[in-house]
Design brief:
Number of domains: 3
CATH superfamily of the largest domain: Transferase(Phosphotransferase) domain 1
CATH topology of the largest domain: Transferase(Phosphotransferase), domain 1
Order of helices and strands: EEEEHEEEHHEEHHHHHHHEHHHHHHHHH
Strand content: 5-15%
Helix content: 40-55%
Strand order of the largest sheet: 1-2-3-4-6-5-10
Shape: elongated
Mean pLDDT: 76
CATH architecture of the largest domain: Orthogonal Bundle
Radius of gyration: 52 Å
Number of strands: 10
Number of helices: 19
């Protein structure tokens, strides 16, 4: 049962029908414009898969705004029956033209292919692969300026099966005679599948039939997958070699061997149409299609609110009963009302490949547009809900909503920027107030302790905090501890200065001169250095300790004797363990040499023949002890013992050092 009204549209004559539904001529009651309304068949309204496919076509057309693509005007749902309205094209499809027996010249083929390629580029740029490009989906408008009437229609399976998430291996969706090999194999496809299909369409326009045909769909699919396409020049000798080569390249089984993009193909077609000379002199002037898109493009639909009818009618002219001979090659004549603009469809939705052939024993690629579904998919269910759902949305409303959304987004962005600016200003003012406000003793102490407790921390990093604490909170119970940190920083600074070379233009204070002289002995003997530092303490008693005013790295507290005295005590604490180790090592070494001298003396007494050699070696060892350790006060006792051994006659035995006696 055909609907009488859908949304604001009064339904008129049916323009086309397929397995999914039908296309009707309709009049918009609100504007009086004539449109084409595509409706999903009532008995399929409960099939969620087909409804998803139908809605996918709507979603696809929303994004595709191009003079060479059918223009979506509105969409909605009446009850459970979805529909959408398109601009109408009054004219014929390439399929209908081929049925009349008319064949296209190579110039016409290049012209139409160039228009289709430019429409495909827009679709591919939006990530949409048509997947069902065929002669019945390419519309040729009647009575339009040169080349302005080629329209690409029917994106019914483009988006539903165009993404990886929607493509299952083994599913074959499309029309067998115009299907890419990878699509026929059920594999994922990309934009190059559309270029292959366009090559098949160009072949059919020139030769009057596609290159692959058969009695069964499966036979055609096998040919698409494995059989090399014949050269079109073999069927149409007048085709220029450049175009013959290009079509052969488009029909390569390997997608990588085809042109890389619709843009690249458009450039190749433009070069052929421009540079290849016309050699066909048999066709009378004015009896050819012309290169589409070389003339100015028809105007786009105006902004919302305009009432001009931007639609034309497609599919209204019936096909002739018998096709005229091919030699006639006459385009349909007769006056037609001039169109106002635009594209759409007259055929129904694309077919799925199936095993059924047409009535004449050939596949249904050109002859029909049926969809054969399994019985289970075509069944409908009884609905209990009796509420009538009505939804209708126009593209003008969507455009207005998009403008409103952008306006809201702009206002929101402005508000966010203003709020951010205010927040930054508050933060700056608040931060300035916090910086200007004197910190509390607890805050300063916490920050100071964080530095002192850090194993990798440098107390100099807290010098400013320490100074502020002692300046602003001198009465705090923790001031003594913090003053100790300040004293440590001053000692560190003084110690670093004392390690640097003395400038010749700066006189040294007595305590600094004595300190430098004492520390010069550290490398020779830590014990001697300690003795010199202890002598310094005797010469420079420590005065009353006062807290020096903190200063920068370059300050020299030369008159602060107490600070130098504290530095001496620090060095004494550091050197004392080193001096103890040094004294123990020296004592052990001297006693070891004394033991060796006793062994040499015993050898001299036991072997008179080697007596002189052993005694000479003994004296050499004892003399080395005196030479090395005579200047070290801590070794004086042992050095005196060695001197006594050297003073005794050769071979004499000192009772306390008799061979075999304990050296200690």
């Amino acid at each position: 049962m055909e609907p009488a009204r859908l949304g604001p549209y009064s339904i008129g004559a049916r323009l086309g029908r397929g397995g999914m539904g039908a296309v009707y001529e309709a009049v918009d009651a609100t504007t009086g414009t004539t449109v084409a309304v595509k409706v999903l068949a009532a008995h399929l309204a409960d099939d969620q898969g087909l409804k998803a496919r139908f809605r996918a076509e709507i979603d696809t057309l929303k994004d595709l705004r191009h003079p060479g693509i059918v223009q979506l005007l509105a969409f909605g749902e009446e009850g459970d029956q979805p529909y959408f309205a398109m601009e109408l094209v009054r004219g014929k499809t390439i399929e209908q033209t081929l049925r009349t027996g008319r064949r296209f010249t190579w110039q016409e083929t290049v012209a139409v292919a160039l228009s289709v390629t430019r429409a495909l580029k827009l679709a591919h740029d939006h990530g949409v692969v048509h997947r069902d490009l065929k002669p019945s989906n390419i519309l040729l408008t009647d009575d339009v300026p040169i080349g302005a009437g080629v329209k690409l229609a029917d994106f019914g399976i483009a988006k539903l099966f165009g993404g990886v998430a929607h493509t299952a291996y083994g599913n074959i969706v499309g029309t067998a005679e115009y299907m890419a090999p990878e699509q026929a194999a059920g594999r994922g496809v990309d934009h190059r599948a559309d270029l292959y299909a366009l090559g098949l369409v160009m072949y059919a326009m020139l030769a009057g039939r596609p290159p692959f045909r058969g009695g069964q769909v499966t036979e055609v699919i096998e040919k698409q997958r494995h059989t090399p396409a014949p050269r079109v020049a073999a069927a149409v000798p007048s085709v220029p070699p450049e175009l013959d080569t290009l079509i052969d390249r488009l029909l390569q089984k390997d997608p990588a061997a085809r042109p890389g993009s619709a843009l690249a193909l458009a450039r190749l077609l433009t070069a052929i149409g421009t540079l290849v000379p016309t050699t066909d002199e048999t066709d009378p002037a004015g009896d050819k299609l012309v290169i589409a898109d070389l003339a100015p493009q028809p105007p786009q639909p105006g902004p919302p609110g305009r009432t001009e009818d931007f639609t034309t009618v497609f599919g209204a002219a019936p096909a002739p009963a018998a096709p005229p001979p091919a030699a006639a090659r006459e385009t349909p004549a007769g006056p037609q009302p001039p169109p106002r603009a635009g594209p759409t469809r007259g055929d129904a939705s694309p077919r799925r490949a199936s095993g059924r052939g047409s009535g004449d024993g050939r596949t249904a690629g050109i002859d029909s547009d049926r969809t054969d579904l399994p019985p289970g998919e075509a069944s409908s269910t009884t609905r209990v809900d009796t509420a009538v759902r009505r939804r209708h949305t126009t593209m003008a409303e969507l455009d207005q909503a998009d403008r409103d959304r952008r306006s809201r987004d702009g206002a929101r962005t402005t508000w966010i920027r203003s709020a951010t600016a205010v927040a930054i200003a508050v933060a700056v003012l608040g931060g300035g107030w916090m910086l200007l406000r004197p910190p509390t003793a607890d805050a300063l102490y916490t920050r100071i302790k964080a530095v002192t407790n850090d194993d990798d921390g440098d107390l100099r990093d807290a010098a400013d905090l320490i100074h502020r604490f002692l300046r602003d909170h001198a009465d705090d119970p923790r001031a003594g501890e913090v003053a100790g940190f300040e004293r440590t920083i001053a000692l560190d600074r003084l110690q670093r200065r004392a390690r640097r070379k003395v400038r010749t233009d700066r006189p040294l204070s007595p305590i600094e001169r004595d300190y430098r002289a004492a520390m010069a002995r550290e490398l020779e003997s830590p014990s001697d250095c300690i003795d010199a530092l202890e002598a310094l303490l005797a010469l420079h008693p420590k005065p009353q300790v006062s807290r020096p005013a903190p200063g920068p790295e370059g300050d020299h507290p030369e008159d602060d004797v107490s600070l130098w005295v504290d530095l001496v005590h620090r060095q004494l604490a550091r050197l004392t363990p080193l001096a103890i180790d040094e004294r123990q090592e020296d004592e052990d070494r001297i006693r070891s040499i004394l033991t060796q001298s006793e062994a040499l003396l015993a050898a001299a007494l036991a072997a008179p023949a080697d007596r002189d050699t052993a005694l000479a070696e003994r004296r050499r060892l004892l003399a080395s002890v005196v030479e090395t350790y005579a200047s070290r006060p801590h070794a004086k006792v042992l050095v005196d013992e060695v001197l006594a051994l050297l003073a005794a006659p050769d071979g004499a035995i000192i009772p306390s050092r008799a061979p075999g006696a304990d050296p200690r």
